[in-house]
TrEMBL record:
GO cellular component, one term: endosome membrane
This protein's name: Arf-GAP with coiled-coil, ANK repeat and PH domain-containing protein
Subcellular locations according to the entry: Cell membrane; Endosome membrane
Compositional bias of kind Low complexity: 383-392
Lineage: Eukaryota, Metazoa, Chordata, Craniata, Vertebrata
Superkingdom classification of source: Eukaryota
PANTHER family to which the protein is assigned, alphabetical: ARF-GAP WITH COILED-COIL, ANK REPEAT AND PH DOMAIN-CONTAINING PROTEIN 2 (PTHR23180:SF241), CENTAURIN/ARF (PTHR23180)
Its job: GTPase-activating protein for the ADP ribosylation factor family.
Protein's gene: ACAP2
Keywords associated with the record: ANK repeat, Cell membrane, Coiled coil, Endosome, GTPase activation, Membrane, Metal-binding, Repeat, Zinc, Zinc-finger
Domain-related comment: PH domain binds phospholipids including phosphatidic acid, phosphatidylinositol 3-phosphate, phosphatidylinositol 3,5-bisphosphate (PIP2) and phosphatidylinositol 3,4,5-trisphosphate (PIP3). May mediate protein binding to PIP2 or PIP3 containing membranes. The BAR domain mediates homodimerization, it can neither bind membrane nor impart curvature, but instead requires the neighboring PH domain to achieve these functions.
Record domain PH: where: 270-365
Biased composition regions of type Basic and acidic residues, renumbered to the chain: 369-382
Swiss-Prot/TrEMBL ANK repeat ranges: 645-677, 678-710
Region called Disordered, residue ranges: 369-395, 529-582
């Protein structure tokens, strides 16, 4: 309530004046109490806010520590770092807010109380003092007697001076009261307005800060949705793996240890086998201690704790032997003997003992083999005639350097974007089509069925070398030139990465299932679709000119055929051509009598061959784009050429000598066990021609090695006659593995681990270093 004191009333010093003064003084006293209380509350609020900022800063530092801890996960690290930076900004804004509050409320109101109200109080004291003096002067003046003229004059003078002083001080007091009443409104509202503006600035700054962060938060939310989907999938996969391992564990018969030991010569960490064993000490007490043993870097080592440096038992496995020990009281013991010392070890069961003995023996053999490979590499480096092998060794070096399937496949033209929608950095692939896909398009491809598209992850799944090379032979550009040849003609717009899923699904079905955009071929000769051919007169003459002429024509056709590229990416040299011709002669000699065979008829002049014949020809020519085009035009992958002993495209791929071509046909549904008129399937032909990599591939794909041709020979007997040690080894290992699985009832299981390791080595060698498997052809060429 605003109180105004009249100056006129001040001069009169009336009761109204005194009542007004009393009311003003009471109001100022209450105002001082309210302002003191508000200042104290403001101080408490500022102290609490600073404590909040301190706690918030500690929390933000905790987030930063968590971000630094998560440096292996880029998404978590980047997100937490960005959030902690935002919180730090908010803490800075809070500190600015509290500083402004302190200036607007605490400082301004305290100044008003200490200066203006203090002035009012000082003025009040002077007024009360002079008012009392005036009252005393009035009383004294009233009590003076008339006859005492001297006292009358003195009292009158004192009263006059006192009134004059009273009026002056009273007017100053009233002025101070009116100024205070006017100023307090401005001071209070000014401080509160400054306080509110500080909050306005604080919330504006926070809004602007989080507005900039909002797009990132939305993107992160979308990624979290995808992470939830991926986590659910990973959970299902882990549950399935858990169930599978439980089933495997039920088949294992370890007496005291359920741990499954695995021998992996290609282990990334160099440890090919590890597990617990008891070791007998060499001291006088011969105590037995349980230690963690491992075979790594051609050494046998052990350690007590994980952080301990491994203790080497055997420096070089090539210098040691391993044997059973039945002459001591403990069971399941075996001894590793080196030239300088021996080590007595004990496993937990008989199976574990056998596994360790087998692992040590295999490691000894591997150590010798690696030593031999190093010597061979040194010889090749010193020999000037190894220039044609650079491409193969280059590929091997890339694998050794850990180049991922994603990096290799995305280097192919067009593969850096999804084949169907163009989204960058695709992480999925269709292995039978040879294209890369984004995650959404891969889901649509998966729904088409494996007979149209076989989807595999480029980052999560393991890739066999021949399959990886198949992906590198095709690519999005090649396949789109085939499957989108008529896209512009039909007026269909290709979906983009942001298109609806329904639009993408309709397009993909039209592209791969209905093949609406494939350029149709002109009508071909109907008889060719059934595998028969009408030969030109020149071809008919060759056909009836006898076995010698037919064989010669086949050899000339094969020798003159221009090969697009070999499996290792090397252009064939003159030496390679001679080796190929020698292997062809050797193969035909094993095939005899086969005089009516016409390789040259494969390349008969036809204006428009049928899709099946096109596939058949391209398989021999190692031309994967032409094969893909033939399949797109409706070629039957198991098409039979009745004119050439009912040979299939897969058999022609064997004759052409390309491992990748065979893999392409198998991925597209080729039957590995279809045989020609002479009873020979792809495995027979690969064995006769000495194609070790193809033999390995067909055995992995379930080829029947017990099938016999019209001469009663199975692939093993053919390989034995040809003295091809590599193929004999593969066939015998496959047969032993098959017998072992049948005896143990492990139908449908991959079988012995050593068998898998050897086949993996042959697959790697056939894909990346095929020259190492040419020993059979080279030896035959040298003999001839």
């Amino acid at each position: 309530m605003k109180v105004t004191v009249d100056f006129e009333e001040c001069l009169k010093d009336s009761p109204r004046f005194r009542a007004a003064l009393e009311e003003v003084e009471g109001d100022v006293t209450e105002l001082e109490l309210k302002l003191d209380k508000l200042v104290k509350l403001c101080i408490a609020m500022i102290d609490t806010g600073k404590a909040f900022c301190t706690a918030n800063k500690q929390f933000m530092n905790g987030i930063r520590d968590l971000a630094q801890y998560s440096f292996k996960d880029a998404l978590v690290e980047n997100s937490l770092t960005k959030f902690s930076d935002t919180l730090q900004e908010m803490i800075n804004y809070h500190n600015i807010l509290f500083d402004q509050i302190q200036r607007s409320i605490k400082t301004q109101l305290q100044t008003f109380v200490k200066e203006d109200i203090r002035k009012f109080k000082d003025a009040k004291k002077q007024f009360e003092k002079v008012s009392e003096e005036k009252e005393n002067a009035l009383v004294k003046n009233a009590q003076v007697q008339r006859n005492k003229q001297h006292e009358v004059e003195e009292a009158t003078n004192i009263l006059t001076a006192t009134r004059k002083c009273f009026r002056h001080i009273a007017l100053d007091y009233v002025l101070q009261i009116n100024v205070l009443q006017s100023k307090r409104r401005a001071e209070i509202l000014k401080s509160m307005l400054s306080f509110m503006y500080a909050h306005l600035a604080f919330f504006h700054q926070g809004y602007d800060l989080f507005s900039e962060l909002e797009p990132y938060m939305k993107d992160l939310g979308a990624q979290l949705d995808q992470l939830a989907v991926d986590a659910a999938k990973e959970k299902r996969d882990m549950e399935q793996k858990h169930s599978t391992i439980q089933q495997k564990a039920a088949l294992q018969d370890y007496s005291s240890d359920d741990t499954k030991l695995e021998y992996n010569v290609d282990a990334a960490n160099g440890i090919v086998m590890e597990g617990y064993l008891f070791k007998r000490a060499s001291n006088a007490f011969k105590t037995w201690n349980r230690r963690w043993f491992s075979i790594q870097n051609n050494q046998l080592v052990y350690q007590k704790k994980f952080k301990d440096n491994p203790t080497v038992v055997v420096e070089d496995l090539r210098l040691c032997t391993v044997k059973h020990c039945e002459d001591i009281e403990r069971r399941f013991c075996f001894e590793v003997v080196s030239p300088t010392k021996s080590c007595m070890l004990q496993a937990d069961s008989e199976k574990l003992r056998q596994a360790w003995i087998k692992a040590v023996q295999t490691s000894i053999a591997t150590a010798y083999r690696e030593k031999g490979d190093e010597s061979e590499k040194q010889e090749k480096k010193s020999s000037p005639s190894t220039g044609s092998l650079e491409s193969g060794s280059e590929s091997k070096e890339k694998l050794l350097k850990g180049e991922s399937a994603l990096q290799r496949v995305q280097c192919i033209p067009g593969n850096a974007a999804c084949c169907d929608c163009g989204l960058a950095d695709p992480r999925w692939a269709s292995i039978n089509l040879g294209i890369t896909l984004c995650i959404e398009c891969s889901g649509i491809h998966r729904s088409l069925g494996v007979h149209f598209s076989k989807v595999r992850s480029l980052t999560l799944d393991s890739w066999e070398p021949e399959l990886l090379k198949l992906m590198c032979e095709l690519g999005n550009d090649v396949i789109n030139r085939i499957y989108e040849a008529k896209l512009e003609k039909v007026g269909i717009k290709k979906p983009q990465s942001g298109s609806q899923r329904q639009e993408k699904e309709a397009y993909i079905r039209a592209k791969y299932v209905e093949r609406k955009f494939v350029e149709k071929q002109a009508a071909s000769v109907p008889l060719l679709e059934s595998g028969t051919k009408v030969l030109p007169p020149s071809q008919e003459e060759k056909r009836h000119s006898g076995p010698e002429k037919s064989l010669l024509a086949g050899e000339q056709g094969a020798a003159s055929q221009k090969v697009r590229s070999s499996d290792s990416g090397i252009q064939p040299s003159a030496e390679d051509s001679r080796e190929h011709l020698a292997s062809t002669v050797s193969a035909n000699s094993l095939y005899e009598p086969e005089g009516d065979k016409q390789e040259s008829s494969v390349f008969c002049d036809s204006k428009q061959p049928s899709p099946g014949l096109q596939l058949y020809r391209a398989a021999f020519e190692k031309n994967l784009p032409h094969m893909a085009e033939a399949l797109a035009h409706g070629a039957e992958v198991n098409w039979v050429n009745v004119e050439e002993n009912k040979a299939t495209p897969l058999i022609q791929a064997v004759r052409g000598g390309s491992l990748v071509t065979c893999e392409f046909l198998l991925q597209n549904g080729a039957n590995v066990n279809i045989r020609d008129m002479k009873g020979r399937g792809p495995l027979h032909h690969a064995t006769v021609l000495g194609h070790t990599g193809q033999v390995c591939l067909f055995l992995k794909r379930g080829a029947n090695q017990h099938a016999t041709d019209e001469d009663g020979k199975d692939p093993l007997s053919i390989a034995v006659e040809a003295a091809n040690a590599d193929i004999v080894t593969l066939l015998r290992l496959a047969r032993m593995n098959e017998e072992m699985r049948e005896s143990e009832g492990l139908y449908g299981q991959p079988g012995d681990e050593l068998y898998q390791d050897i086949f993996r080595d042959f697959s790697q060698m056939a894909t990346n270093n095929p020259e190492k498997l040419n020993r059979f052809q080279q030896s035959d060429s040298q003999k001839s």
